[in-house]
Amino acid sequence: MEIKKLTNLHGEITVPGDKSISHRAVMFGSLAKGTTRITHFLEGADCLSTISCFRKMGIDIENNNGEILVHGKGLRGLSSPTDILDVGNSGTTTRLISGILAGQNFVSELTGDDSIQSRPMKRIMTPLLSMGADITSIKGNNCVPLRIAGHPLKAIHYDSPVASAQVKSCVLLAGMYSDGVTSVTEPVLSRNHTEIMLNYFGAQVTSEGTTASIVPEPSLHAREITVPGDISSAAYFIAAGLLVPGSEILLKNVGINPTRDGLLRVCKDMGADITMLNVNMDGEPTADLLVRTSSLHGTTVGGEIIPTLIDEIPMIAVMAAFAEGTTIIKDAKELKVKESDRILVMAENLSRMGADITPTDDGMIIHGGKPLHGAVIDSYLDHRVAMSFAIAGLLCDGPLSIKGGDCVKISYPEFYEDLYGLGE
Ligand code: S3P
Known about the structure:
It is found in: Cytoplasm. The chain is an alpha/beta fold.
């Protein structure tokens, strides 16, 4: 994929629906009684994997020109899968659905692509096993493929060693099928979309600090859901608007949940000119973001902010390479177990462009402001790496191409069309 050069980015853009919220809307809609209507659903490959898994368990899910209708059958309404459940590339599908499957009365198997087959699943197997679940990694390596024989579960309190919404959500979802109140404490608060949406569907989820608890056997009722724009997808246009000279971009209806908005705080620290308009704090908070070209400087990103921007770190690394001064990213070991090892992959590719970047055990150090040249970038089929380097390609000297650049379809199928639509 060759990246075209663009100058003076101008215009308005509505990024696709939030990936985390789209997954949850399909899952919880399937477990609710009645028809859940989802608008602005993300039709990326990951969320389509979630739809396909629930269809295989007897849930009728219609797609009417992008509006999704989930004909849910209630908490106990799933049926034994007609086939192996294919989660594709999706960590969210795998980890959340495992919590649901652990409490069913049938056996299921999950498989997926090479990337998901090397990502850690012990983090969900450990709490599920302590709830009495029967979950095994078929190859014995604590990865997908998984076999889950559902049966009644015990309520637990789980002290999670990682700040992971996928782990937290897995335990809370299993908790719906358990014999008491199940709770999870995480070291730092991760995204809280599960808590917000389960309550909206009628469950009793309470949150206090970094602990979330759920009452079992909720009656979930179908809902109308409008998915906000994904701040993780908006990140690429925020960076492009800030870095490409002479730009002004209005991003409409972006999710700004405080458990996801760390990128905006880091951009501000780096000297960004971003104005929030039409802020709406009902349910999942949203705003329009007006982004103007700014001269950026380095910053330090670490501690409690990390889970709120974990998926945006590839984009932050590229921004840091174009900013003046040093950026330190730390406390982000989780980057090693994402769709690729994002510490190594960002360091390798930014170095190829001539950037001064040193990978560390839990992040990276970038001395920004050096002129960067074009290169052949390897995305390692990681959608967020590909999109981050597409933005780098607008700014560097000479041509930049991305191996496996069409992996953007995982979370943003129209990414290149939307990007090129803004430029001159
Ligand atoms: C997600 C949680 C995050 C994030 C992922 C989506 C979710 O993963 O990186 O892209 O939808 O819950 P972890 O919870 O493993 O940090």
